[in-house]
Design goal:
It is elongated, with a radius of gyration of 21 Å. The relative contact order is 0.19. The protein is 23% helix and 25% strand. α4 links the parallel β8 and β9. α1 packs parallel to α2, α1 packs parallel to α6 and α4 packs parallel to α5. The strands form four sheets. Strands 1, 2, 3, 4, 5, 6 and 16 form a seven-stranded mixed sheet that branches. A four-stranded parallel sheet has the order 10-9-8-14, covered by helices on one side. It has two domains: 181 residues, FAD/NAD(P)-binding domain (3-Layer(bba) Sandwich), CATH 3.50.50; 107 residues, FAD/NAD(P)-binding domain. It has six helices and 16 strands. By secondary structure, the protein is α/β, with parallel strands linked by helices.
């Protein structure tokens, strides 16, 4: 059978690359497929300080480059192709790409999730330059600076409180006149003297040349625009949108079991409800989405896939 692999991994972020490393080291014929830029969300992070063993000048791109090199060193093949359809019904799984069709004894889905964007002008250009979607990753970079958190749900308020450990002031910007977060979380937030709140407000534009320099707010009731500029002693500030994540799972709807949010459901060994199909990283239901947990998922998925292949294909 043409293009038959032991393991095909869809997605080349930390989860997919870790899976590729472990699968190829196990002498499995391994293919990592990525539709675009290798690395996932971490390549938008200038510094990686919370991954164990990271060196002082580690960046998202440099860490990913080492992961790619390591996986390829052990024989993992990497191709750029966009998967447009899958058939998981047979013993050998079929993945149809824009360029080729691939067959695999086991498939690891590691396509990740992406933060829901504000959708305002300047957001994309300043991502990683003041705009961040991960407080755990980037809070330290805003020590003694001001930070704006966009959103009003549980995660927005919890992340805002976390940011108060670092930032001088944290302002929650919410489009309504009251938070959607649980009352218990709200009570803690309102008692935090480092936190302020902007009600009935959205972000119209984020401005800056290389770093954030100002932000334009819009009042949802009056339509009035207000521009806030960074304090001259600071030169910049942080913007953290927490308005939800979107799992990149549309292709797999009806193929594997998901929760109502579109995240793939697995057990602790990364098994989905379909034999021979595994999921790893941000795409699956989990409590913490970080580089370290994604890499761990990828390693577990590859080892579980190896055992599955040995048992079902007599190898």
């Amino acid at each position: 059978m043409q293009n038959l692999y032991d393991v095909v991994i869809v997605g080349a972020g930390p989860a997919g690359l870790a899976a590729g490393l472990y699968a190829s080291r196990a002498k499995l014929k391994t293919l990592i497929l990525e539709k675009g830029k290798v690395g996932g969300q971490i390549v938008t992070t200038n510094e990686v300080a919370n991954y164990p063993g990271s060196i002082a000048d580690a960046t998202g791109p440099s860490l990913i480059a080492r992961m790619v090199e390591q996986a390829e060193e052990f024989g993992a093949e990497k191709k750029i192709d966009s998967i447009v359809d899958v058939d998981f019904t047979g013993k050998v799984k079929v993945l149809k790409g824009e360029k080729e069709e691939y067959h695999a004894k086991a498939v690891i889905i590691a396509t990740g999730a992406q933060p829901r964007k504000i959708g305002c002008k300047g957001e994309v250009e300043l991502t990683g330059k003041g705009v961040s979607y991960c407080a755990t990753c980037d809070a330290d970079f805003f020590t003694d600076l001001e930070v704006f958190v966009i959103g009003g749900g549980d995660s927005a308020v919890e992340e805002a409180m976390y940011l108060t450990k670092f930032a001088r002031k944290v302002t929650i910007v919410h489009r309504r006149d009251e938070l959607r977060a649980a009352k218990s979380i709200q009570e803690k937030a309102f008692k935090n003297d480092k936190m302020e709140f902007m009600w009935d407000t959205t972000v119209d534009e984020i401005k800056g040349d290389g770093i954030i320099e100002s932000i334009v707010f819009k009042n949802t009731k009056t339509g009035e625009l207000t521009e806030y500029e960074a304090h001259e002693d600071d030169g910049t500030f942080g913007v953290f949108p927490f308005i939800g994540f979107l799992p990149i799972s549309e292709l797999y709807k009806g193929k594997v079991k998901m929760n109502e949010g579109g995240y793939i459901m697995t057990d602790d060994d990364m098994n989905t409800d379909v034999d021979g199909v595994f999921a790893a990283g941000d795409i699956r239901v989990k409590s913490l989405r970080q580089v370290i947990t994604a890499a761990a998922d990828g390693a577990i998925a590859a080892v579980t896939a190896e055992k599955y292949i040995e048992h079902n294909f007599g190898e």
